UniProtKB/TrEMBL annotation:
It comes from Campylobacter coli. The lineage of its organism: Bacteria, Pseudomonadati, Campylobacterota, Epsilonproteobacteria, Campylobacterales. It comes from the Bacteria. Residues 4-61 form the Peptidase S24/S26A/S26B/S26C domain. This is S24 family peptidase. Signal peptide: none annotated. SUPFAM superfamilies: LexA/Signal peptidase (SSF51306). CDD domains: S24_LexA-like. It holds the Pfam family Peptidase_S24. InterPro entries: LexA-like (IPR039418), LexA/Signal_pep-like_sf (IPR036286), Peptidase_S24_S26A/B/C (IPR015927).
Length: 77
């Protein structure tokens, strides 16, 4: 958890499930909130020890609109 900053979006595995969630840390708390950009899913409060059992696969460093991505692929392809 030390390498993850507040508001980072991380990709992680818990058991056999993959997740992409924004991390919301509370100062001096022993828990974090996993925040979904998809409002169909509620935020989840998770104990730090429970989250440390997850495998962190990476972090989102940028985002791109799907139309921009499609245009890029057409130009490159």
């Amino acid at each position: 958890l030390g390498a993850i900053s507040n508001a980072d979006i991380v990709i992680f595995r818990k058991n056999d499930d993959l997740f992409c969630k924004k991390i919301k840390k509370e100062p001096f708390a022993d828990y974090i909130f996993l925040v979904s950009e998809n409002k169909k899913y509620e935020d989840k409060k998770v104990d730090n020890r429970e989250f440390e059992q997850c495998e962190i696969l990476g972090a989102v460093v940028s985002k791109m609109a799907i139309e921009t991505f499609k245009n890029f692929i057409e130009v490159v392809g």
